[in-house]
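Summary for the steering committee. One of the milestones for this cycle was to obtain a three-dimensional model of the protein with adenosine-5'-diphosphate bound, which we needed before selecting residues for the alanine scan. The sequence and ligand used are listed below.
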Amino acid sequence: MASSDADIDFEVRTLGPRTVPSPLAPLLERRRTSHHAVEEGDRILFDDTRSSSERRGEGELPSLEAAGPRRKIFFDPSKTRVGIVTCGGLCPGINNVIRALVSELTTHYGVRRIHGFRNGYQGFIPEYGHDVVDLTVESVDGIAALGGTILGSSRGEQDIGQVVDCLERMGISILFVIGGDGSMRGAQRIAEEIGRRDRPIGVVGVPKTIDNDIPFLDQSFGFQTAFSEATRSIRSAKVEARSAPGGVSVVKLMGRHSGFIACYAALAQNDADFVLIPEVPFAFDGPGGFLEVLRAKVRSQGHALVVAAEGAGQELFTEAEAEGGLVDASGNKRLQDVGRLLRQRITADFAAHGMELNLRYIDPSYVIRSVPANPYDSVYCTRLAHAAVHAAMAGRTNMVVGRWRRRFVHIPIQLAVSTRNRVDPNGDLWWSVLEATGQPASLGEGAEAIEVPAFGGQ
Ligand SMILES: Nc1ncnc2c1ncn2[C@@H]1O[C@H](COP(=O)(O)OP(=O)(O)O)[C@@H](O)[C@H]1O
Ligand SMILES: O=P(O)(O)OC[C@H]1O[C@](O)(COP(=O)(O)O)[C@@H](O)[C@@H]1O
């Protein structure tokens, strides 16, 4: 199978022919008749959303390789040494992935040497002096109940040559990288450097971010936990807002480029009157602008609740403020603080209109991101980790695992970092938010008009 787009590669590389019988082969024999068994060449259609008549004449559709155990594998488990590293921001479920990688490698494949590199890519660079920890089924027992990552994480560029030197020095055969798009770009460069050195070392990623903005994943792990946790802040904010005259609560949630957490949390806890997300620009002033509509809401309802994703309203900052913006250690743009701007503008506006205001501001970002995974995400993390182990043992490299259209698949890293998943302002999710909040179609002149009717009599 090949892609219909010459620029995009849907094929995952394999280090070499698979000659070693998998210890899982007997188990696979037993379920050969099951339609869930993965056969060589099984692929999942990449884009099956259009009808066959719409697709007529377009030829073969792109597809992704199905994940799952193979009967023959590339690595001999008795000689395989594995490394695991976690990079970037925290996310519920990282420890679940670590635990499941270790237990699958150990119990099903019989791999005996698994090492955890500490504090992200720093862990490979001798100058930092981080220790390398041995990971066993016993040492990872119970870690799923903890938030964060037992290995630690970091941002910031590291020398890829030195990372690969370390892998070679330690005789690592497979490196698992649990991280976001930045980490995956790093993993891709590590795999490429390994390729240049012609070494049989596999690099397999388990994509992580609470922002849920990784493409070709039905959902990223930890996202469900994160938005569930966010509902608690929304509930508290509602209690605060309606308990005081002129009560306005603002809840700022994570979401640099995408408003998924804000949208899902607002829909799950139906208390928000306004949801502001990066995908939908808005204006403060003018007829139908945010401030005017907010005042109207407080007059009619007595209070109001605003949920804002951290990436919302970035267009409202002056050019000077935006230019003064910094980047974090990894080069990610540091966003302007929409929470501060909302507080300033709402306070000034209510004062200018002689309206009483009791403003409450809640920013639960780190509280949300550091909780342990909920039961759904725990299961999901386990399944992703198992898929990653099967792929890696079969010699796949320069890829990540994901669940796409409800099937676990192998995705080349290049494809996984090629774009970003964002809330579609014309899609069902955003429509549901508009319906649930009674938000007008467009907040303010100059804001991007969204073609939906106004709700809630606004
Ligand atoms: N293009 C890149 N090439 C190599 N390493 C990168 C690249 N982008 C990011 N990284 C590294 O990956 C790690 C995590 O990246 P970061 O953007 O902070 O988090 P995330 O992986 O969650 O997006 C950092 O150590 C960073 O330096
Ligand atoms: O940990 P930091 O540097 O404060 O980063 C905060 C950022 O991390 C995130 O939680 C996700 O970041 P990742 O790109 O690491 O997944 C964002 O929502 C947030 O903007």
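Key point for the committee: Residues 88-89, 180, 209-211, 254-256, 310, 328, 369 surround 1,6-di-O-phosphono-beta-D-fructofuranose (ligand 2) (CB under 6 Å).
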